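Subject: two folds for Thursday's group meeting

Dear M.,

Sorry for the delay on this. The cluster queue was jammed most of the week, so I only got both jobs back this morning. I'm pasting them in the order they finished. Each block is the input sequence followed by the predicted structure tokens. Could you check whether the formatting survives your parser before we put anything on slides? The first protein is the one we discussed after the seminar.
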Amino acid sequence: MPPPGYKVSVDVQVRFRDTDAMGHVNNAVYLSYLELARLHYWRTVTGSRDIKAIDIIVARVEIDYRAAVMLDTELACWVRVSEWGRSSFTMEYRLEEKGAGRLMAQAKTVQACFDYAAGKVKRVPEEFRRKAEALEAAV
């Protein structure tokens, strides 16, 4: 069952290499989990699998760890766009224990749309915003 306000999720397999000497997922690994969810969201919205078409860069990350994730924990990482700016947008994430729905971590990232050829930020493409807003509004 999706948490309120979330439509997109990706399953995350916790691998042995994700864990540290204490037996739980190292806090730096959560960034990779967020990246998986962000890529899945982008592909869901755009329908593209062309990695060179991704024109966003992460400008900010914040993570609140709620419970320790261990090796055999099955995770679902929910993701949504929560705020739009002119050249950036904020995504929110909920990492939950799959099936149980127990909250393991919450996160936010700010993405800036980037023109790699010009080497500077650019406006959020209208088509991407329109499709993302339609996805978020779907019942």
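Second protein, same layout:
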Amino acid sequence: MNTLGIDIGSSSIKVTLFDVENGKSIGNASFPPKEMDIISLRQDWAEQDPEVWMNNLQKAIESLRKEHQSALPDVAAIGISYQMHGLVMVDHKGQVLRNSIIWCDSRAVNIGNKAFIDLGCGFCLQHLLNSPGNFTASKLKWVKENEHLTFDKLHKFMLPGDYVAFRLTNEIKTTASGLSEGILWDFERNTVSDELLQYYGFNREMIPDIVDTFSIQGHLSNEMAEILGLTAGIPVTYRSGDQPNNALSLKVLNPGEVAATAGTSGVVYGVTESKAYDQQSRVNTFLHVNNSENNPRLGVLLCLNSVGILNSWVRHQLLGSEISYNEMNLLASNIEEGSNGLMILPFGNGSERVLENKHIGASMHGLNLTQHHKGHIVRALQEGIAFAFKYGLEIMQPLGLDLRVIRAGKANMFLSPVFASTLSNLSGARIELYNTDGAEGAARGAAIGAGFYTKPEEAFDGLRLLESFESEPNSRINDYYEIWKKFLEKELQS
């Protein structure tokens, strides 16, 4: 028996076939081979066409079928992971009304900031655990204010994963965890926030019906089964935003456990049982996938917008596309710690929550044209991203984050020993890298949601530690971080 995990990212669509019995992935694929386009009609805007997600999902499954045709008929459940905080709007016929406004779009920052003041900072922090900020609810308010003809046609608004599940099953649903990431959930009352809906002028009927994260949420329609080459009637049994799902994939489910990713964005996600929040909403708290009223589990999330995008930009614009990411990692490993004084502030992809929604851009400091070369640029890039992680971790630790161990999938920036060891030295935590990713996490979630295991812990029997990094007592990286931090604070002040 197999499950299918679907990961709707902003760069690509990934799929994984998961063998329920042995707890391991038996095949995976992604599409497109290069990053999906992000439509940016104005500075700080970021949109994608949801139909492109569906087309690329079809192509990813076609690619999977070439290697694993005999395994696809055994798929018994589907799980979905998706890019968080996005907005999809549909009319009464289920037709998309406009492009999705995705996670890294910054147009609604001022709307969310005003809501934070008007609703009351105390109310927002106590009930929403966050400022409304630049999240899904504020993005919908932007549409209401600026595209009122489109808003007037709205039947339901959804998160990206809700939309993909709708296309698969013809049922419009969402989860409490998903609503919390859109800043629509009242943590005190354990329901949708009526105050926020009233303030933004939204009707409760615009919100899809709520289902449990692990549950039967609909069944694959005949039409989509034919398009995807799967069996009609397969249940969708799990959906989650990408960061809670990444934590699930790494078995980060209990207070004190911490997960990280460094793909398109950079994220640290720590689980707590308390309603923790940052007064400035520089880090954010959401319902975790295994939250329940009797067993509260919340995720405190640090997000950095520019990790993978900046890494890609340096490769394509400065180094040349003929240099691979593996070659970049080798270049970095040949440079001493501190990059010979070269520093990079790794921002530049919209407003950064960790910087209180300021947009300072990316910048390079200390460049010496006779001393620095490609290797220094790559090392400074990787150290700069690790420094940004450290800056966020300093905000998270007072909220009860336990930094003894950080778990991550061995992928993206964590393929670089320089990055992983730098983060370990900065944080003092052991970095553990595992054989998993978001699509595999969604497949595990599908198996749990379908009830294929007597105990949910059995879903992680195939999870394996591949590599670990311990902090080095002789490292001077924290000294270099303090210099970097001064440059950052100077930029923030200016």
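Two things I noticed about the second structure. The mean pLDDT is 96. Residues 374-396 form the longest helix (23 residues).

Cheers,
T.
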